[in-house]
Amino acid sequence: MSVEDDPATTERETAEEEAAGDAGAAASATPKLRAENVTKQFGRIVAVDDVTLDVRPGEIFALVGDNGAGKSTLMNVLSGVHAPTEGQLYKDGEPVQFSNPSDARAKGIETVYQDLALMDDLDIATNIFMGSFPKRGVGPLRVIDWNATYERSRAIMREQLGREMDIQTEVEFLSGGQRQLVAIGRALAFDPDVIILDEPTSALSVDATRLVQNTLDRLAEEGITIVIVSHNIESVLEHADRIGVLYQGSLVDIMAPSETDLEELNELMTTGTLETGLLDD
Ligand SMILES: Nc1ncnc2c1ncn2[C@@H]1O[C@H](COP(=O)(O)OP(=O)(O)OP(=O)(O)O)[C@@H](O)[C@H]1O
């Protein structure tokens, strides 16, 4: 009897296939975002070097790497800030060219930058809809619809971010975690299906980090695809579905948190390889 015919083997294989079912389905779906052979040079500096990666629909994909590894540059290529020197981006399987962040926005990709760019003396609702205020009236008589602005801000806070906050509070009175949520709320006002975040938990307390991470988990559960650039490896190991490691501009590995640990990730980030030589050519 061949191995293929052995009922025990077949049973085990079926169980393994079932266990891998969900992950397999996600892996075989059309990627939400794809970077194919993307290189970005600044003069002679190769900041991102021939990177190919797929971000799957509804996953939290974390980009990690040492200082200068190319994380921000790759993020800026995905969000339309930089055009790639070489390579091609795809959104939902369609080739796309972004000349600026508005082009990415038009394709459903929003970016939350590290500085958050909030207006401290304005309230939460105004910050959320800054740049996308609902309007009423027609032609030259169109004006901001403040009722809709407040209603929709409240809905974003409550239904998408899961927070009860007084949306008339000025942003200057908010904690670091709450400010990050407002910046995420502003991204949500554009109704994206991808949100890219640069270091969303840097300089946050443990509690605030948890608040932001739980919010990102919630958005991913709603089906929004999340890409984060992060130095917070512990948090990434806890919350990301997959982790891409950049080293000197190259993508050296992509793995699930269950396939790695803190020590191994640190080693990959700082040396670009593992002592075991698994990644050596
Ligand atoms: N606008 C630019 N002009 C010239 N060089 C740049 C520019 N932006 C980035 N670089 C260079 O590209 C390389 C990658 O930088 P990048 O900021 O993408 O790395 P990073 O992984 O985000 O680093 P960090 O964690 O320190 O922010 C570095 O050598 C950096 O000096």
Automatic annotation (TrEMBL):
All copies of domain ABC transporter, residue ranges: 33-273
A GO term, aspect molecular function: ATP binding
Membrane-spanning intervals of the chain: none
Listed PROSITE patterns: ABC_TRANSPORTER_1 (PS00211), ABC_TRANSPORTER_2 (PS50893)
Biased composition (Low complexity): 21-30
Organism domain of life: Archaea
Region annotation Disordered: where it falls in the sequence: 1-30
Composition-biased stretches (Acidic residues): 1-20
UniProt keyword list: ATP-binding, Nucleotide-binding
Protein name, per record: ATP-binding cassette domain-containing protein
Organism placement in taxonomy: Archaea, Methanobacteriati, Methanobacteriota, Stenosarchaea group, Halobacteria
